[in-house]
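hey m, so remember when u said the tokens were messed up on ur end? i reran from scratch. heres the input so u can diff it against urs
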Amino acid sequence: MSNTTGFYGDYIQAVSDSDLTLCPASEFGSSTESYCIYEAFSLGSVPVVEEDVAVDNCGGDPLLLLKQHNAPFILVESLDDELGDVIANESRMNLQEKIARRATVVNWYANFRHHMASQFTRVLKAHINH
């Protein structure tokens, strides 16, 4: 097993064990939307997404699709400024609420993936038939 594989396994375990996953805006000029968000959804962890539209090079909201589908994520303008409030809100939830939220996140993501796959198939078929 390589170090990369070991690190990835540790990362997946850490996200699986976490009720929240921090998804900071990139310092490298890429989009706010990242794999981190989808990895968290798939493992039942709520992404805490730092919104930084200034880094979006496409001119639109990189989180628009997730927002349109009512994704169960926490959106903050600044992790530095708002993380304390996020953690305070988290600490007020009991275990049953956190378990229910994890199930909601996993179910939402499964439905979202199914919807996106169906939509992709419809568009593809429409273009093939023309």
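this time it looks ok to me. The mean pLDDT is 89. if urs says something different then somethings off w ur setup not the seq
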